[in-house]
Design brief:
The complex is a heterodimer of chains A (495) and B (222). Chain A has 495 residues and is an alpha+beta fold. Chain A has helices at residues 2-15, 17-55, 65-78, 94-101, 163-167, 190-196, 241-244, 250-255, 273-283, 286-289, 299-340, 342-350, 355-405, 457-474, 476-484, 487-491, and strands at 58-63, 92-93, 106-119, 151-156, 170-175, 185-189, 203-208, 214-225, 236-239, 259-267, 292-297. Chain A contains 16 helices and 11 strands. Chain B has a 6-stranded mixed β-sheet with strand order 6-7-8-3-9-10, with helices on both faces. The chains are: A alpha+beta (495), B alpha/beta (222).
């Protein structure tokens, strides 16, 4: 009887070509969309995984503002003297930073060294300090210094790590920029250079305001900035951290464990950020007592992979919609088909066929037609996936771009493959790229705009699994109609 | 000598619901059908003939009463097994599988019975009902009504079951073909089958030279 079932199925498939073609077309379309969705999802996952590992994720070590605010409120409430409570800016020591950076979760790290100094053989530029103009005018505490500082020293690992560079507001007007190995070199502002008629190659002297010793540095570059407001000054001189440390107090410099600022850790994989923070807090419990906190900045990652992740989610939705729609459509077609063939079903039952045998015939027919349709879709599905994936991504990128444009200049993330910008001296200044570590969502960050969709063997296996699953599920209703009713009812069309 | 097969119906009643109303189609039918004989059940439309035949063919569940074959209840034998090994039915509308040839239709019956499955046996059965080899290899939808009904009879013969049932088997046939088909049933009865033909035509009943039962308002009488 089983052999006869296969024979009947085959005859039905080959001798009812129009019905076979209709079902095959539906299953073919379904299989293409299923394979496309699976392949897109797989490619999205690969891209996201790559982005997670290559883009990493940045963790900042910075002042715990909410805690400071809370402490400030408490002190203000308990203070009856009428004087405003004062706070020292929380800073991490270099040893702590290096200790945290020793974690296996950390791919790279950066920090800056800030110091105040006094102009030696040149004159500091005159700035408007009545508003938010220069840093030096903003209530700098000079009580602990021997001489009044007029220069702000910013030591960073690389010129590329300067905020203004990553945001595109600072550019090199002449010369080149430094890196960690370029000691005793500095970059001065265009305004300062103009005021003192300084140029690249000149040597300037800067006085340590604590020790009153003078250090000579060579101007290797002159920068220009369009940035204004708080934190900007024509008298800010950039150099590497080792050179900047020479302008710290003697104790700090001699101990080698001076405080550093703008500490950022780049994760080997953005997924590890939370684990890293937990690890660091456990190893350095004093961070909390010193009002420091580690916070995640995955803006670059989010902005870069956001569109492609949306595509992945969309592909999942498509997959479910296609699967459910296919179950409904195939089920309806098979139900109508079984209804149309009720005499055939009834006769088979009247001849003594088991109901399972009759349902089995319909199942085998669908499997035969489906297998052909699915096999063809193996060839076409990948092409559909490529087109569909790229269209979806283009749409998402376009939406993402317009939403960014409408976000009042909110910066976007870093580029894939970001992380430590590998810039060497003599290269032209980057016009964008990553922030310090691609974090901070620089305005020049580009979202992933292309998707390389390719189906794997696993995708094909999933395709066949899902597709056969659809066929089986689509048979539930028509199969139930055969199981539920007596042969007489089937013959009379009662089902 | 082989004992006679007996199909016995005892106090058979059947009710179905129609628009919320219960309609008693069969009312306590008692009858006995023996092998080697042909029976004709005559009655007007709606008298319950087809329902009775469906129950005899185990196409529907017996609600009340019993049907026994050689003393064993059909319920005990099992409906599917009864249909497979004991009975076969020929329908007024032939109910052949349209995408198959005449021979393939008969082969379905042969293969189900498990007694024989070869093409030759199918051709042989078809030849017995007057279908040539050439006709046997045609799709059934390309055969005339009379030919299709003869294919249906050949299919019912394929399982070599002891009970052959027919529901208005000549309803769609001309007189000449009707006579041929009825003679086939007579032959089956002569070969030891229990043949029960349901018809609304008294003419068919008498022509078939059968034992005639009359069905009226769900009751069966001779």
């Amino acid at each position: 009887m089983l052999k006869n079932m296969f024979k009947r199925s085959w005859l039905s498939v080959v001798r009812k070509p129009s019905r076979t073609v209709i079902i095959a077309l539906i299953l073919f379309v379904m299989a293409n969309l299923v394979l496309a969705s699976i392949a897109i999802k797989g490619s999205v996952n690969s891209s996201v995984e790559y982005a997670k590992s290559s883009l990493g994720g940045t963790v900042y070590l910075q002042a715990d503002i909410s805690k400071l605010r809370s402490q400030f409120s408490q002190q203000a409430a308990g203070d009856t003297s009428g004087t405003r409570p004062t706070f020292t800016r929380p800073e991490a020591s270099l040893d702590t930073v290096k200790g945290i950076a020793s974690s296996n979760y950390v791919k790279d790290y950066t920090y800056s060294v800030e110091a105040r100094a006094k102009a030696g053989n040149f004159t500091a530029a005159t700035e408007d300090t009545s508003g938010f103009g220069g840093r030096m005018g903003m209530g700098s505490d000079t009580s602990d210094t021997a001489v009044t500082p007029d220069i702000q020293i910013e030591g960073v690992n690389s010129w590329a790590f300067v905020d203004g560079v990553s945001s595109g507001t600072m550019t090199i007007s002449s010369g080149k920029y430094f890196d960690e190995t370029t000691d005793n070199s500095a970059m001065i502002s265009y305004d300062l250079a103009s005021a003192d008629n300084l140029k690249v190659g000149d040597t300037i002297t800067i006085e340590n305001v604590y020790t009153e010793t003078t250090e000579s540095v060579t101007i290797i570059g002159i920068y220009d900035t369009t940035q204004t407001g708080f934190g900007t000054s024509a008298n800010t001189i950039y150099m590497n951290t080792a050179t900047a440390a020479k302008f710290l107090s003697t104790d700090d410099y001699n101990s080698g464990n001076y405080n550093v600022q703008n500490v950022e850790f780049l994760m080997t994989n953005s997924e590890y950020a939370k684990q890293f923070i937990a690890w660091a807090n456990a190893k350095y419990p004093n961070l909390a007592s010193e009002n420091l906190s580690l916070t995640i900045d995955d803006a670059a990652y989010q902005q870069e992979v956001g569109p492609i992740e949306s595509v992945g989610k969309f592909a999942t939705t498509i997959l479910w919609v296609v699967v459910i729609a296919s179950i409904v459509i195939v089920s309806l077609i098979v139900t109508l088909n079984v209804k149309e063939r009720r005499y055939e079903m009834g006769v088979l039952l009247s001849l003594g066929a088991k109901k399972a045998n009759v349902i089995g015939q319909v199942l085998v027919e669908l499997i035969v037609v489906g297998t052909v349709a699915f096999a063809i879709s193996v060839g076409t599905g990948t092409a559909v996936a490529k087109v569909m994936g790229q269209k979806l991504l283009d749409q998402q990128v376009s939406q993402s771009t317009s939403s960014t444009a409408n976000s009042f200049g909110r910066p976007t993330g870093g580029s894939i493959g970001g992380g430590m910008p590998n810039l060497s001296s003599g290269e032209s200044a980057p016009t964008g790229g990553a922030g310090r570590f691609g974090g901070g969502a620089s305005a020049n960050t580009k979202a992933i705009k292309t998707i390389d969709v390719s189906a794997t063997v696993a995708d094909y296996l999933i395709l066949f699994g899902v597709s056969y699953g659809v066929i089986v599920l689509a048979l539930v209703v028509p199969g139930w109609n055969i199981v539920k009713y007596q042969p007489k009812e089937i013959l009379s069309g009662k089902e | 000598m082989k004992d006679k097969n007996i199909l016995e119906v005892t106090n058979l009643s059947h009710v179905y619901e129609n628009g919320g109303n219960k309609v008693e189609v069969l009312r306590g039918i008692n009858a006995k059908f023996e092998s080697g004989k042909m029976y004709a059940i005559v009655g007007e439309s709606g008298s319950g003939k087809t329902t009775f035949l469906s129950l005899l063919a185990a196409l529907d569940n017996v609600q009340s009463g019993d049907i026994k074959f050689n003393g064993t209840s059909v319920k005990k034998i099992g409906a599917q097994k009864f249909r497979l090994h004991y009975s076969n039915i020929v329908f007024q509308a032939f109910n052949l599988i349209k995408y198959m040839t005449a021979r393939e239709n008969v082969q379905v019956g042969l293969e189900f019975s498990g007694k024989a499955s070869g093409k030759e046996k199918a051709y042989e059965l078809l030849e017995q009902v007057g279908i040539t080899r050439d006709e046997a290899d045609r799709l059934v939808q390309h055969l005339s009504g009379g030919q299709q009904q003869r294919v249906a009879v050949a299919r019912s013969m394929a399982g070599d079951v002891p009970i052959i049932l027919a529901d208005e088997p000549t309803g769609n046939l001309d007189e000449k073909t009707e006579a041929k088909v009825l003679s086939l049933f007579r032959e089956l009865a002569l070969n030891g089958k229990i043949v029960i033909v349901v018809t609304h035509s008294q003419k068919v009943a008498s022509h078939a030279d059968a034992i005639v039962y009359r069905m009226k308002s769900g009751k069966l009488s001779k």
